[in-house]
C-alpha cells in the first residue's frame, strides 16, 4: 500500500446521469460531491469549526451543513480537484479525515473512506464508455444513510476534550501523478482505539466504504 499523501493548506459538478444511466464521469462527480458534504458534516458535527461558520443547504433530501470559511473552502476545492483526477483514472484508494488535538498533536479520530474503482484495470477508452444501470435514486438513498450516520456520530463518539484541528490524507497508487504541493504524510494511526464501521454506497463504478476509529482513554 502506498504512503498517504497530504495537501497543505464550492461548487461541485452535478452528477452526469442520462436516462438514469451513470457514466464514469458521473460516478466521479457523485463521489466527489459526497466527499465534500461528508467532510463538511464531520467538521460541523465534531465542532472542529464554529457552528456560525456553516450555512444550511439542501441535498440528498437532507439539510446539510457547508462551510462559509473561505480558507477552508479553498483547501477543500484543491483537494476535490485532485481527487476528481484520481477518481477518473482509478488511482485513489482511500481518503482519510484525521482529527487531531490542537495542543497535543495527538490523533483523536480517523474517518476512513475506502474507495474501490471497478474500472481500475480497464483501458481509458473502455472506462470512458462504461455505464452503470443502477438507479440514481438508489445511490442517493445509500448516501442519505451515510450522512445520517455521520450526523448521529455524536451519540457514540467520545467528546473531544481539547480544541481540535484536522488533516486530509489520500492514499493513491504509486504510479499516480502527484502535484508538487502534496507531500508524504504519516498515516496518523491511533494506538489505543475502537472502530465503528458505517454504511457504504455503490454506483457500480465506484464503491465507497466508511469507517471511523477513535481514541479510547486509558483506564
UniProtKB/TrEMBL annotation:
Stored InterPro entries: HORMA_dom, HORMA_dom_sf, Mad2-like
Gene3D superfamilies: HORMA domain (3.30.900.10)
Keyword Manganese in annotation: no
Subcellular location: Nucleus
Record-annotated HORMA domain positions: 25-212
Organism domain of life: Eukaryota
Pfam family, one: HORMA
Annotated keywords: Cell cycle, Cell division, Mitosis, Nucleus
Regions crossing the membrane: none
GO biological process, one term: mitotic spindle assembly checkpoint signaling
GO cellular component, one term: nucleoplasm
Family that this chain belongs to: Belongs to the MAD2 family.
Protein name: HORMA domain-containing protein
